[in-house]
Amino acid sequence: MIELLVVVATATLVFTLVTALLAPKKSIYAKSEEPAYRRLATGWFERWHQRWLYAGYEASAKMPGWVMLGAIAGSLVVFSIVSSPLMGVAIAAAVAGSVWTFLGSRVRKRNEKITTQLEDFLDSVRGHLDGAGTIEQAIRQATKTTEAPLSNELRLLIIDLDARVTFEDALRRFAFRSPSRSAAFAAAMMDMAYTSGSQEIQTNLTELAKLINENAEMAGQIKGETMLLRVAGRMTMSLPWLIVIANLVMMNTVPAWTSTLGTFVLLGLVAATVGLWFWFRFLQRWAVEV
Amino acid sequence: MTWLIVGAAFVTVFFLVFALTPARTSIYSRKKKRDATNLPSAVGAVVGVMPSISVPASRRTKLAQILKDSDNPWGVSVGELQALSVLSAAVTAVAGALLGGLVGPLYGLSTGLAPVFAVLGAVLGFILPANRLRSAVKRRHRRVSGTLYEALDLFSMATSTGSPVPVAVAKTYHYLPEGDLRNELGQVVRAIHAGESFEEAIDAFAERNNTKRVTTFARTLKDANRDGQDRTEKLRREAGAIRRDQAKRIKARGKTIQLLLIPTILVAALGLGLLAWMFPFLYANDIGGVL
């Protein structure tokens, strides 16, 4: 029986490494020479900052990354001392995973809401353009009738415009803050219309609303097809909590915690968590990149 | 059982070595000077001092093609890639021998199996670097094809505002979100600025990303540039067709994912169940001496 347990733990560890290393790498992306309307966050600080912004919170570029580093390091040190190193790892993983999952869930909800609101917003912009105003004036007017969360992002855009940031930069910053890819696309389109001064803007805004609708439909389809994956992912993220709860239930007196086999079992559990997380992420990307 | 453990441990070490040889910088920020590679410093230093290895002509052609297709993320020559393969083979052979010779006996395996593990490690290690490059190429193709409809949307909007085709391509690059397709279009724009003709730059783009969708996209761009007709509607239809195709594929993949998820969830549940079942035993016995 013990051998079986050892094999399961080893297989889990191997599974973890294999799946982790077969997952697509983000690092192949480099910053382009020109700033993009929607940037890919690379590195620890950028990823946390972007997730933080997409979830609707304001923060300086480094703050979320430092807060999470502090939380992880703090949990690791404190619980390693008062309990065991593995408990430290488990609690640090549980804290980071929970915050990441919570932010992710907020990002998804805001993304869906903003994408839905965009269609009405673009309609409204088009309506105001009929009154022979400029696109900037039309955006200002349409913002007044838009509700949160899109209105929050648009108000920041207007603050930028009032602060004499160029129209292009203000739109770019709006696109960077917004969790919706469609919003970034709309910003790019509005900038294109602004710089070309084209008469086709109204037609293109109608076309854009249609495209956003089509993209939203596709996103809905992806969401439906990958629903099980998200559920499985969340269950995986709860695994570190299982270790924590088990330790609390046993009043931190489990001999296995300090024995070689116990350590091995717990390491297997941590490895399984990480491995499953990578595996689900890999599947998620595989489903989308077709 | 013991075979399984040793095999699993071997695979672990193998993939750790795999992890230690990633491309350090992006394929889009290649160094201009050929005095250093983009390999991790230690690996690059070893490859740098390794003697030149002669490569048979057929393999040389294959490796050169892989390096070209992948945009050479490690910044190595064919000879250096061959040296990297040999280095990788050596490292994994040593790891295999150590596992077979030191860890194997702990589980009752004969030390005589160490050479077998070493050979197995060498073979896997040798094919690893080229395999990683091939995977990178496939991944880029997939990502470029997968986001092509966005480029078509932006491009058709740019042409509808009266921009000539090369300008519309530049605008599409400017407004596209960061990603492989944007990087690829950036290469097209830079090539045109450097004096290449539009057709040459687009052909090179299509050649680098040799997929059906990209080929069609490139042909449409060239046709539009040649006859100067407004193809906005056609481009929009193409983008719509890609979207529909994408939706169909996503649906098919969704089904595959469900199939893959069932065994994954079963294995995870089995593992957890086993752990829960073993817990009283672990709790009641100080079994630290077992291993």
Walkthrough of the structure:
The complex is a heterodimer of chains A (290) and B (291). By secondary structure, chain A is mainly α. Chain A is 79% helix and 0% strand. Chain A is built from 13 helices and no strands. Chain A has helices at 2-22, 44-54, 63-82, 85-130, 135-144, 150-162, 167-177, 181-196, 201-225, 227-237, 239-249, 255-258, 260-288. In chain A, helix 4 (85-130) packs parallel to helix 8 and helix 6 (150-162) runs antiparallel to helix 7 (167-177). Chain B is mainly alpha-helical. Helices cover 76% and strands 0% of the residues of chain B. Chain B has eleven helices and no strands. The two termini of chain B are 15 Å apart. Mean pLDDT of chain B is 77; it is low at 20-35 and 287-291. At the A-B interface, helix 1, helix 8, helix 9, helix 10 and helix 12 of A face helix 1, helix 5, helix 6, helix 7 and helix 8 of B.
Give a quick set of tags describing it.
heterodimer; A: 290 residues; mainly alpha; 0% strand; B: 291 residues; disordered C terminus
Tell me the helix content of chain B: over 70%
Can you count the beta strands of chain B?
Answer: 0
> What low-confidence regions of chain B span 5 or more consecutive residues with pLDDT below 50?
20-35, 287-291
Radius of gyration of chain B: 26 Å
- Give me the strand/helix succession of chain A: HHHHHHHHHHHHH
Query: Which sequence of SSEs, written as H and E, runs from N to C of chain B?
Result: HHHHHHHHHHH
Main β-sheet of chain B, in a few words?
A: none
- Terminal CA distance of chain A: 44 Å
What is the total tally of β strands of chain A?
A: 0
Unreliable stretches of chain A (pLDDT < 50, length at least 5) are 14-32
> How would a textbook summarize the main sheet of chain A?
none
Which pair of chains has the greatest number of interface residues, and how are they split between the two chains?
A: A-B, 85 and 80 residues
Query: Quick check: average pLDDT of chain A?
Result: 76
Helix content of chain A: over 70%
Structural class of chain A: mainly alpha
Head-to-tail CA distance between termini of chain B: 15 Å
